[in-house]
Design a protein that fits this description.
Its EC number is 2.3.1.82. Pfam families: Acetyltransf_8. This protein is an alpha+beta fold. It has one domain: Gcn5-related N-acetyltransferase (GNAT) (Aminopeptidase), CATH 3.40.630.30. The chain has helices spanning 12-20, 22-28, 34-45, 75-82, 108-123, 139-147, and strands at 2-6, 52-58, 61-70, 92-98, 129-135, 151-157, 168-175. The strands form two sheets. A four-stranded antiparallel beta sheet has the order 1-2-3-4, with helices on both faces. The chain has a three-stranded antiparallel beta sheet with strand order 5-7-6, covered by helices on one side. Strand 2 (52-58) and strand 3 (61-70) form a beta hairpin.
């Protein structure tokens, strides 16, 4: 069973370890020193940043990270995404990774994404949709999104997180479920 809790300062060492693993570092491209993790995740942990960072726990054991944000809270990102695909008012986005290398490639990412979307729909009743841009080369990520029920709605150039990547991104979308 996957459960969730907000990231706090006690999780920063674990995040740094996960961010250093090659399967995470390839796509997240973060510095992993204690100072860098504090710089990048501290404002969210303190509530100074509108993004929310959630630790995913599988049977109580830390599994990964999911971030959620309202696209409107980041006007530059919203403008770039809106140039590729229509973005409904109130739309949100997520980003995610599985931390432990031995958990990758086992379908857990799809379960994590699907579970988090259920949480998002409950806690963000005004969010009509979730849009997720994924660098086109990150096949495992966009396949996990597809298996979790998102559909590709556009492709276009966005600034990649990792400068070694081409700018081509696929944009995935899922709308709020209707009827319960």
């Amino acid at each position: 069973m996957i459960t969730w809790r907000r990231i706090d300062f006690d999780d920063f060492a674990l995040l740094g370890t996960w961010l250093a693993h090659p399967h995470v570092a390839r796509w997240w491209n973060h510095e992993t020193s204690a100072e860098a993790v504090e710089r990048d995740f501290g404002p969210t942990a303190r509530g100074e940043e509108p993004t929310e960072d959630w630790l995913a726990l599988l049977d109580g054991v830390p599994l990964g990270l999911v971030q959620r944000s309202r696209l409107a809270d980041y006007p530059e990102d919203l403008a770039a995404l809106s140039a590729i695909v229509p973005v409904p008012d109130g739309a949100m986005s997520i980003d995610y990774f599985i931390g432990p290398p031995d958990r990758v490639g086992r379908g857990i990412g799809t379960r994590m994404i699907g579970g988090f979307l259920g949480k998002l729909w409950q806690e963000c009743p005004d969010a009509p949709a979730v849009l997720v841009p994924v660098v086109a080369a990150n096949t495992a990520s966009w396949r996990a999104l597809e298996k979790a029920g998102l559909r590709r709605v556009a492709s276009g150039d966005l600034e990649p997180d990792n400068p070694i990547d081409e700018p081509l991104h696929h944009v995935y979308r899922i709308d709020r479920p209707t009827g319960g």
